[in-house]
Q: What sequence folds into this?
């Protein structure tokens, strides 16, 4: 159920299902997730911790291990299915076509190897024909490209001689070393200082424009998504709740969960004690609700049965915009109520 | 690591910086100073003595047999004295030291390579591979090492090469276990996952990411093992299954001197002291490395550029 009109998505995820083995049998932690990524676009995936965003990306890269396994669906890279590929074929794809940047640059670099050599490694893996000198020149070029000052000297340094922002820059250099088609950034700025966050994000978008790679931005920072992404997918409890162009999602959210997420942002004009929060807890592995996964916490449900008996279909709610809610038509009217809750609280001046 | 592409002038300043920081580290702790002193003495003995004109570990001269240390006979001073056949003990202790160190270092190298390889592979792949390797380790541990060495040495016959290989083959377990334990935690680290997402294969990860991280610890284990191996070699030679005369080893010299322990104790005592100094020195050295923590073999001296 692709909502976008472009004919050849660079990456297409179709009805992806990931299961984790528990003592009570398999539990679906990613449930029929589908989306398309177009060449050169920035696709944001938002959701709270445990919503399945990172595991979806690991599944896309074929890196599910331990008790998690791919239980259904398909991942197509330029029309080629990744799920049917051999281990060796997948290995060739990783780092060359699909590249990933992790959250914490402190732990993503090997402490006992020189930073330059670690970047060179990525080139060595995929391009064994390159000479030592060529690899070295390319690494220095990459370090310069990501804004590491005096790259020749920095090449020889170890990760402990780099600051956090510099390390993330080095990780970005590593990720773009082979000009990948898709850059997956898993909360790339979460572990960084706020001032550095902006710089790193700016850099990430700049190098992406330069390499013309598409980017999947996994985050729970809605502000980041609003600034950087072209399209957004909202995930909750392993399901896709809503997907659409970023301005659509922010101006006319179709799913009550999206509304809740946006209302939960700290605002400068509201005292922090009155910060809105979605009532309840996200579902655990064992107590997943029937029907719509969001129904126990939903403010729009009002005790209606269909929410617990049937899984809502992913309905088109606007131009290239879809939401998985039975009552998405009511959402717009309900936004006012959530706003009122926040507003009332400010007036009453009592903590929620 | 790419030290090859550094300019010449830089390399020299670097090595000076390395020497200075090495001296700095040695003077940091007493155990390190003691270790350096003991090892220096042993190394001087086995390196310098064979270069001196009086060096002669083999020729016998019954006229000067059982000379006490520092006794001067016919204008020649025997600093360590002589044995029953009148051979110069200083020369023999020095030569024996070379033999013992050669065997010790080679055996440690063999077992370290085997142990680190098996341990990393077991810890990285887990599953069947891990069970097989650890089963082999347990099997090996269930047979007393001395007994095994005696049995095999008796079958293949005593020679320096056989002895070294045997000691090397039977000592891998300790490296294997430590390497596996470290690999278990390292394989979960993000830089390994990160390398996997960049297309690194298992072999690549083991070589590039696990190995450099376990090597410092392995070298420390190796330094402990060196002392052990030299003592093992001594006991095997003592039993006649190691070094064959007239080539001396410290262990064999002790066994030869044993009969004269009451009348001429220095024959057995001097090589004994040499073993003691070497083993203690090495152990203090590894202790200094482990307890200080600040000194990491794999990381360079703080950049002076």
A:
């Amino acid at each position: 159920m692709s909502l976008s009109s472009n004919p050849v998505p660079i990456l297409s995820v179709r009805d992806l299902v990931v299961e984790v083995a528990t003592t009570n049998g398999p539990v679906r932690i990613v449930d029929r997730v589908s989306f398309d990524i177009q060449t050169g676009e920035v696709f944001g995936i938002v959701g709270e911790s445990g919503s399945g965003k990172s595991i979806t990306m690991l599944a896309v890269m074929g890196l599910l291990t331990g008790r998690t396994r791919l239980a259904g669906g398909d991942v197509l890279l330029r029309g080629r299915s990744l799920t049917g590929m051999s281990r060796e074929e997948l290995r060739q794809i990783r780092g060359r076509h699909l590249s990933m940047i992790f959250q914490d640059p402190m732990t993503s670099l090997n402490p006992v190897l020189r930073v330059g050599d670690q970047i060179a490694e990525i080139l060595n893996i995929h391009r064994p024909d390159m000479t030592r000198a060529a690899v070295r020149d390319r690494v220095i070029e990459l370090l310069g490209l990501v804004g590491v000052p005096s790259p020749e000297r920095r090449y020889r340094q170890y990760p402990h001689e780099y600051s956090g922002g510099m390390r993330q820059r080095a990780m970005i250099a590593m990720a773009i070393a082979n000009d990948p088609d898709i850059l997956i950034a898993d909360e790339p700025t979460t572990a960084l200082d706020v001032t550095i966050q902006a710089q790193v994000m700016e850099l990430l978008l700049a190098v992406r424009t330069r390499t013309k790679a598409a980017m999947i931005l996994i985050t729970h920072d809605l502000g980041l998504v609003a600034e950087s992404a072209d399209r957004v997918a909202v995930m909750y409890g392993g399901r896709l709740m809503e997907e659409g162009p970023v301005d659509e999602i922010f101006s006319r959210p179709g799913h009550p969960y999206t509304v809740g997420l946006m209302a939960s942002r700290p605002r400068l004009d509201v005292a922090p004690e009155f910060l809105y929060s979605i009532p309840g807890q996200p579902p655990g592995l064992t107590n997943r609700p029937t029907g719509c996964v969001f129904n126990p916490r939903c403010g729009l449900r009002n005790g209606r049965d269909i929410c617990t008996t049937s899984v809502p279909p992913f309905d088109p709610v606007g131009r290239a915009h879809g939401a998985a809610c039975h009552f998405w038509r009511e959402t717009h009217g309900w936004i006012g109520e959530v706003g009122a809750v926040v507003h009332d609280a400010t007036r009453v001046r009592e903590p929620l | 690591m790419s030290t090859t592409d550094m300019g010449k002038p830089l390399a020299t300043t670097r090595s000076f910086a390395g020497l200075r920081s090495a001296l700095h580290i040695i003077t940091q702790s007493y155990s390190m100073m003691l270790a350096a002193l003991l090892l220096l003495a042993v190394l001087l003995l086995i390196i310098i003595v064979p270069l001196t004109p009086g060096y002669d570990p083999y020729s016998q001269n019954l006229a000067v047999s059982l000379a006490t240390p520092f006794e001067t006979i016919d204008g020649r001073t025997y600093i360590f004295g002589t044995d029953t056949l009148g051979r110069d003990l200083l020369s023999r202790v020095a030569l024996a030291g070379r033999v013992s160190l050669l065997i010790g270092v080679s055996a440690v190298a063999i077992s370290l390579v085997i142990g680190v390889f098996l341990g990393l592979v077991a810890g990285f792949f887990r599953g069947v591979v891990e069970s097989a390797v650890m089963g082999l380790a347990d099997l090996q541990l269930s047979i007393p090492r001395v007994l095994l060495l005696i049995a095999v040495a008796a079958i293949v016959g005593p020679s320096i090469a056989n002895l070294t290989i045997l000691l090397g083959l039977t000592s891998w377990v300790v490296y294997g276990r430590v390497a596996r334990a470290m690999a278990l935690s390292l394989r979960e680290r993000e830089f390994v996952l990160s390398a996997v997402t960049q297309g690194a294969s298992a072999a690549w990860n083991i070589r590039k990411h696990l190995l450099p991280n376990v090597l410092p610890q392995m070298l420390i284990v190796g330094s402990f093992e060196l002392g052990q191996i030299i003592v093992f070699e001594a006991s095997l030679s003592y039993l006649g299954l190691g070094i064959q005369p007239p080539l001396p080893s410290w262990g064999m010299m002790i066994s030869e001197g044993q009969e004269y322990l009451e009348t001429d104790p220095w024959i057995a005592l001097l090589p004994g002291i040499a073993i003691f100094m070497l083993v203690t020195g090495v152990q203090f050295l590894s202790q200094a490395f482990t307890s200080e923590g600040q000194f990491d073999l794999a990381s360079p001296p703080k950049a002076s550029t």
